[in-house]
Amino acid sequence: MAQTVRIEIPATGRVVEIPTGLFINNEFVSSVDSQERIEVINPATEETICSVVAGSKEDIDVAVAAARAAYSTTWGKNVTGFERSRLLNKLADLMERDMQVLAEVESLNNGKPVKIARDFDIGDSIQCLRYYAGWADKIVGQTIEVDNRTKMAFTRHEPIGVCGQIIPWNYPINMWAWKVAPALACGCTIVMKPSELTPLTALMLSKLIAEAGFPPGVVNTVPSLGPIGGAALSHHMDVDKVAFTGSTLTGRKIMEAAAKSNLKKACHIREVSLELGGKSPHIIFESANLDQAANWACLGILYNTGQDCTAGSRLYVQDTIYDKFLALLVDKAKQLVIGDGFDEKSGGGPVVSKAQYDKIWSYIESGKSHGARLVLGGEKRRGKGFFVDPTIFTDVTPDMRIVRDEIFGPVLSVGRFKTEEEAISLANDTSYGLGAGLHSTDANQCMRVSSALEAGTVWINQYNILGNNIPFGGKKQSGIGRELGSYALKEYTEVKAVHWNFGEQADWPL
C-alpha cells in the first residue's frame, strides 16, 4: 500500500502530498501487524481528509529499537554539539521554507486560522528550533575541587537516551517543536506519538527530518490511538523518558505506567515530564487599564477558540469596576470572528472534533441549568462544522462545574471580588496551577499578588504570551517538569559525577 496521499486544499487549490505511513528509520512504512486506519477529519466541514496508518504496540517496539540503535551509534554521545546544532538549524530553515503549506494543512486538520498557524504557531516553532540549536554545543558540567594535591571531580550532563513523546491536538506543530528541539539538542532520540485527531503535520515534519539529514532512527513517528501507542510508550522497558502534554487524567495513567515499567525515573520529575490541564484565574483590579485588560482577557479565553491549557477561563473583576468592565468585555468578545480557517477575517476556527464540541456544549448547558447568567453566546449554529461562538457567564458560584472543570473551549466564567485577599483566595481555589494573570497599575500590588498566586506562570498586565527562552510548566495537578528555556535541557539530560584520583594511595587492610 502506498504510504502517501495527494490531497487538494479546497480554499487554495494547492495539491499536497501527505505521508500516511509510520516514520521509522527515515522511511514511511506500513504497520508490522495492524490493518487499522485513523480517519482524519476536517472540523470545519466534518468531512474526511484522508486516513493514516494506525500504529500498534509492535510498531512502537520497532520504532523504539530504531531509536535505541541510533542513540548507540550515530547520535547520543557519538555526535558533537556542533553537528546537532547544524541539523536543528537546517530543520528550522526547511520549516521556514514550507511555512505556508504547513499552515494550510494545519488549518485543514486542526481548524485554526491559516494566519494564526503560520505567523504564530509555525513562526514560534522555527524560533524554538533555532533557540535550542544555540544550546546544543553549550551543555556543560562543572569541575569540582576535592583535593588539589591528589584528586578532583567533574560532572557531565549526558543525554537521557530514548524518549517517548506524546503531543496533543490543540497545537500540533508547536508542541512537536517544544518536545523535539530540546531533546535533539541534548542528544536524545525520539519516538513521537502525535494526537490521532491531528497527525498530518507531524508526518510532514518527519519528512523534513530526513531531508535535513538527521541519521535514521533519531526521530521516529508512530500515529496511533492513545490507549495503544501512548500506553505502549509509557510501559516500554527500553524507553528512558516519557514527555506528555494533555489531560491530567491521562497524565496520571502515564505516571503509573512509567513507575510500573522501568521507573523511567518516575521518582524524579525529569524523566516523566507532564504538562497537564488548567483552570487558570485572571484578575482585574480597579486600577487596571480597562481597555487593555479587556483585550488581554479576550485573548486569554478566546485565542485558539479556548483550546488552550492556560486559557484564562475564570475571570475575577473588582466590584468597583465590574459593570463597566463587563460591558467592555462583552463588546470586545463580539468582535471576534470564528469561522473557516481559510477566511482571512477569522480570528478563531472550529473546535477540533465532535467529541470536543459535545463536551463544550454539555458545560454550557450545565451553566445554564445551575443558574449562571448568560451574557453572550450559548446558542448553537446551524449547518456543518464544530463551531462554538464566544460564551460568557456571570453570576457564577465557586461550586459550579463551569467554574471548577477545564472546559477547553471559548467559555468564560466571570466573578467579582471586593478585596485583594478575596481575589487571591478565589484564584487559588482550584486543583490546577498552570497559569494565572492579573492587571493592575499598582506595582506593589503586582508583586504581592504574583507572589501569592499558585501557578507555574503568572502574567502581569498581559496574558497567554510565552517565550522560547522562558520556562513553562505547572504546579499542583497541572503537571511536573518544565518546558522551554534552559530549564527544558534538564528534562533531557542526566548528571554524571566522575571522581578522578591521581595521587591518593589506598591503605589496606582496613
Q: How are the secondary structure elements laid out?
A:
Layout: E1 4-8, E2 15-19, E3 22-24, E4 27-29, E5 37-42, E6 47-53, H1 57-73, H2 81-97, H3 99-110, H4 114-135, E7 143-147, E8 151-159, E9 162-166, H5 172-186, E10 189-193, H6 200-212, E11 219-221, H7 226-235, E12 241-245, H8 248-260, E13 272-275, E14 281-284, H9 290-302, E15 314-318, H10 322-334, H11 354-369, E16 373-376, E17 391-394, H12 401-404, E18 411-417, H13 420-428, E19 435-439, H14 443-452, E20 457-460, E21 479-480, H15 487-491, E22 493-501
Keywords: Oxidoreductase
Protein name: Aldehyde dehydrogenase domain-containing protein
Active site: 275
Q: What does it look like?
A:
The chain has 510 residues and is an alpha/beta fold. The protein has 2 domains: 296 residues, Aldehyde Dehydrogenase, Chain A, domain 1 (3-Layer(aba) Sandwich); 180 residues, Aldehyde Dehydrogenase, Chain A, domain 2. It has 15 helices and 22 strands. The protein has a 7-stranded mixed beta sheet, sandwiched between helices. Strands 11-10-9-12-13-21 form a 6-stranded mixed beta sheet, with helices on both faces. It has a 3-stranded antiparallel beta sheet with strand order 7-8-22. About 1% of the residues have low confidence.
